[in-house]
Backbone:
């Protein structure tokens, strides 16, 4: 049974900490929990809501229909009541977030001690929060006691935490950034780590160039931003192509063009990631679909960048960055060895001494050397999982997608006659993908309007996907599993 | 045995270019400063794009010939990545005052221990003569047939206001360059050094040299901010008149914690 709890209120009323506390409590009691955040670009007031979905089975997405509606303010009921299931419950009448934590703990027979300990950890307003939580716990009369197994090895993590963890496992020394939603929380994550320096500079141009500076003196560096900031970085990233400098860039997408929708999600920057910067050079683009993949792909990005002295892009989005997932498998990491000594680097084509050259023979030789390196990267990448297959692998129906749509797809195809191919390595692009998708009824799912993945597949395999078989969402929201299931079913053969 | 800092690359500056003076001054300074071949690894140079940047190819040291305007953030990343590295950054006036202006202002605030020479010839020379933010009003080229209408900025005033801890100006003369680098390397922080450098082709010396005087000869107190500001205002980067005086030397220096001291 999947339960969907929507928690809504004004910014400042604490819907986030309430969702987090509930999520952690449910995970500790052996559930699988997924929650996403929906918020506006403001600090106080407005309407923010989180949807928390949990079950005894793995959960990676939300549904559109709500079982429990938690209203920290009146607006929440007005806006979301239409999505409440017939048998759904509304919890309202109190504006304290921890009051509802108490009620839901009671409702699902969670150990109150867990909540009390967590409130103690939070520290701020402990007495007040505890008394509200107790009040809620006592006032709740219903119980839905189904789940009572203990599980210690489940980890509750969001995508940004996954990327930070992957960077730490890769011995990151410097993270340079200029704050930009939804990449900003990485700064907070890494700032608290021992031996990692988080450095905020005047703009993204300074960020990428300082990153390059630290990289050429032999340090492991990552920079992070969203679309607009990434645009500013691309001149310098192009230089890393000619100067052969390792650097890892986290590009966390939100809707563009322009400022777009600052706090929503999108997969609109795939072509930007594949084609950033002027000139001809090889670009590595890796797209995790959950926090565990975020950990591993970040580590692989460091590995490939260091080994081949080249930039790597980790392409995420707001939905992956800020949603919390229950992780129940350990990630595997490779050791990153930094072998980047300070020599003579050049943004020009250079001779053996590292000085600028205009000699056509040397220029040609340099380019061919870099082309050969691109081939090596393609071979080396085969060490890693470039794509994953889920669902019914023998089915004629095959969904193709990448990045954060993974969760909703996996949850929606559980009882459907179809498979799912998730592409992790967008560049290099595995040659095997062509064999996997040949003669299948391909269904493309992307969180954008121009379906850049279908363009990439056409370019790399010669296989075109029918427009009718493209399920695209471009309103700034992620897919809901129940709605997506309906859309997929219509296209199955 | 003196350290060999020469390279095999044949300079492509115009014959007689004042950049040769800057190159000689830097090399003379480094040849005395660097202890041995091994010690060379502790020094690095960073250049932007423009005539000045060719200096990267004429000094046998590690570093990076970076992008136009990006010398300072690149040097900052290098310095905090390896605080033991002695870094000299080179920029032109286009590099420092146009494309890279935001970095310049913040570099003064960060105060990383980087020595920064701005080859100020008051013109975009390598793109054949367009005006920069420090070109004098009235300057004419093909892009401004009616003459430049804007007033130039005063980088010395700007750097003082931005909180630079070492602000100096020299003329493009090997001896002056060597002397100012000696002083700059005694300073634990960002050293801003502007070099007044004529461009033989597009911005020849407009009687600047004869208008210059040395601050040290006038008992200038380089610990006094107000005095420094006053001296900075003596030259406004316009065509010198009878009254014009161009002060050279160290305008100002103060002690402040260097950026890299905060690194884990």
Residues:
């Amino acid at each position: 049974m999947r339960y969907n709890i929507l928690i809504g209120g004004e910014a400042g009323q604490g819907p986030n900490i309430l969702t987090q506390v509930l999520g952690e409590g449910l995970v500790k009691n052996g559930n699988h929990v997924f929650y996403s955040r929906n918020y506006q670009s403001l600090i106080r007031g407005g309407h923010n809501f989180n949807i928390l979905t949990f079950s005894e089975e793995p959960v990676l997405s939300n549904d559109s229909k709500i079982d429990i509606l938690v209203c920290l303010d009146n607006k929440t009921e007005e806006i979301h009541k239409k999505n409440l299931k017939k048998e759904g419950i509304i919890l309202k009448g109190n504006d304290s977030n921890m009051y509802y934590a108490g009620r839901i703990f009671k409702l699902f027979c969670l150990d109150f001690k867990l909540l009390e300990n967590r409130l103690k950890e939070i520290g701020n307003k402990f007495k007040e929060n505890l008394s509200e939580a107790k009040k809620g716990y006592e006032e709740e009369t219903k119980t839905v006691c189904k789940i009572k197994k203990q599980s210690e090895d489940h980890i509750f993590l969001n995508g940004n935490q996954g990327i930070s963890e992957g960077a730490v496992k890769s011995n990151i020394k410097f993270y340079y950034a200029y704050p930009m939603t939804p990449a900003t929380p990485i700064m907070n994550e890494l700032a608290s780590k021992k031996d990692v320096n988080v450095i905020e500079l005047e703009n993204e141009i300074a960020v990428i160039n300082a990153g390059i500076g630290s990289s050429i003196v032999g340090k492991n560096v990552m920079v992070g931003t969203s679309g607009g900031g990434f645009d500013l970085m691309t001149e310098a990233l192009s230089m890393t192509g000619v100067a052969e400098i390792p650097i890892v860039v986290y590009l966390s997408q939100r809707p563009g063009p322009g400022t777009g929708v600052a706090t929503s999600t999108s997969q609109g920057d795939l072509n930007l990631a594949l084609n950033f910067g002027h000139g001809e050079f090889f670009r590595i683009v890796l797209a995790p679909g959950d926090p565990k993949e975020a950990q591993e792909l970040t580590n692989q990005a460091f590995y490939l960048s260091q080994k081949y002295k080249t930039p790597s892009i980790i392409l995420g989005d707001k939905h992956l960055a800020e949603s919390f997932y229950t992780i129940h498998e350990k990630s595997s990491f490779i050791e990153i060895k930094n072998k980047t000594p300070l020599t003579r680097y050049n943004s020009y084509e250079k001779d053996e001494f590292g000085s600028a050259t205009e000699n056509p023979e040397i220029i040609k030789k340099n380019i061919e050397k870099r082309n050969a390196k691109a081939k090596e990267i393609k071979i080396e990448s085969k060490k890693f999982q470039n794509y994953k297959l889920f669902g019914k692998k023998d089915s004629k129906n095959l969904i193709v997608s990448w990045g954060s749509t993974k969760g909703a797809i996996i949850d929606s195809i559980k009882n459907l006659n179809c498979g799912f191919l998730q592409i992790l390595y967008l560049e290099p692009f595995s040659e095997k993908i062509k064999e996997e998708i040949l003669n299948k009824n391909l269904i493309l799912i992307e969180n954008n309007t121009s379906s850049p993945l279908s363009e990439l597949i056409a370019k790399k395999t010669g296989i075109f996907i029918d427009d009718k078989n493209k399920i695209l969402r471009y309103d700034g929201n992620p897919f809901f599993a129940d709605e997506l299931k309906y859309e997929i079913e219509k296209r199955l053969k | 045995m003196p350290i060999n800092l020469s390279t095999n690359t044949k300079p492509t500056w115009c014959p007689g270019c004042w950049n040769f003076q800057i190159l000689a001054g830097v090399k003379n300074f480094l040849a005395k400063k660097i202890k041995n071949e091994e010690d060379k690894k502790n020094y690095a140079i960073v250049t932007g794009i423009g005539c000045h940047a060719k200096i990267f190819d004429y000094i046998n040291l590690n570093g990076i010939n970076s992008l136009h305007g990006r010398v300072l953030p690149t040097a900052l990343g290098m310095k905090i990545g390896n605080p033991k590295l002695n870094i000299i950054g080179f920029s032109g006036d286009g590099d420092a005052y146009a494309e890279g202006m935001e970095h310049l202002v913040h570099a003064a605030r960060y105060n990383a221990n980087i020595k920064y020479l701005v080859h100020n010839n008051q013109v975009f020379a390598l793109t054949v003569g367009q005006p920069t933010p420090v070109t004098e009003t009235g300057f004419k080229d093909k892009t401004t047939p009616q003459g430049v209408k804007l007033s130039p900025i005063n980088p010395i005033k700007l750097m003082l206001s931005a909180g630079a801890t070492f602000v100096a100006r020299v003329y493009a003369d090997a001896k002056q360059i060597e002397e100012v680098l000696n002083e700059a390397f005694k300073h634990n922080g960002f050293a801003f050094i502007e070099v007044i450098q004529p461009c033989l082709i597009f911005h020849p010396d407009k009687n600047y040299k004869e208008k210059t005087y040395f601050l040290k000869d006038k008992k200038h107190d380089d610990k006094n901010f107000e005095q420094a500001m006053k001296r900075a205002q003596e030259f406004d980067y316009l065509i010198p008149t009878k009254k014009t005086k161009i002060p050279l030397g160290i305008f100002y220096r103060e002690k402040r914690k260097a950026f890299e001291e905060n690194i884990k």
